[in-house]
Amino acid sequence: MDATNQVDEFSPDSSQERWLSYLALTTVVLAVCATLAGFKEGNFSIDSILSQSQAANQWSYYQSKSIKTYLYEMRLDMLAAELETGVQNQTQAQKEFLEKKIADYKREVDRYGTEKNQIMSDAKKFETNRDMAQRRSSSFGISVIFLQMGILLSSIAALMRKKSLWLAGIAIGAFGIVYFADGFFLFLT
Predict the structure, then answer these.
(1) Alpha helices in the chain, H assignment, sequence order
(2) How far apart are the first and last CA of the chain?
(3) Contact between 48 and 130 (Cβ < 8 Å)
(4) How far apart are CA 102 and CA 78, in angstroms?
């Protein structure tokens, strides 16, 4: 038999060559999406950790402001009691001094209250960012799983020349692409 006329059992004819070309193309698309999804999953995981850390810092700051507020409130109560109980024995200057201190402490309590509200708002924003990053990271993580399964089935289909495995790989990879898109747009629950 002539070497030029000899047909290799593994060389595809034109109909097989066409689906194998599509198989290669879909495998590349799935691999690119899986790579991007892996990077995005990692980025959002880091964002989630950073946001959690920032939220925890804000809540600690809030707690310190609460303690300071409580201390000012205690001192305010003590000064108010001292002003009321010592009215007969106090000079006008002492009364004015206590009244000034009481007014100063009330301003501090009010200031800390305002600051605490802002700190709480910031902490809740960080928690919202954390939750969103976790949600996105989860979608990208699920995407990677389905995309890798699609790549695996497509690879096996190429080795075994089984079109049915490739179609199964496409179907599973499509789930991965849906979750990949969800990582960006959050349209799934």
Answers:
(1) 14-85, 92-160, 163-185
(2) 63
(3) yes
(4) 9
Token pair 């890798």 is found at 148
Cα dihedral 110, 111, 117, 123 in deg (nearest 10): -150
- pTM for the structure as a whole: 0.81
**Mean pLDDT in the chain?**
92
Q: Alpha-carbon dihedral of residues 145, 177, 160, 5, nearest 10 degrees?
A: -150
Query: Would you say how long the chain is, in residues?
Result: 189
Q: What Cα–Cα distance (Å) separates residue 167 from each residue in 19, 131, 172?
A: 10, 36, 9
The residues, ordered by sequence, that sit 6+ positions from 37 with a Cβ below 8 Å of its Cβ are 140, 141, 143, 144, 147, 176, 179, 180, 183
Q: Which two tokens stand for residue 173?
A: 């990879």
CA distances from 152 to 28, 119, 131, 142 (A): 12, 49, 32, 16
pLDDT digits (tens, 9 = 90+) for 161-179: 999 999 999 999 999 999 9
* Predicted confidence (pLDDT) per residue in 98-155, tens digit: 999 999 999 999 999 999 999 999 999 999 999 999 999 999 999 999 999 999 999 9
> Cβ distance 146 to 176 under 8 Å?
yes
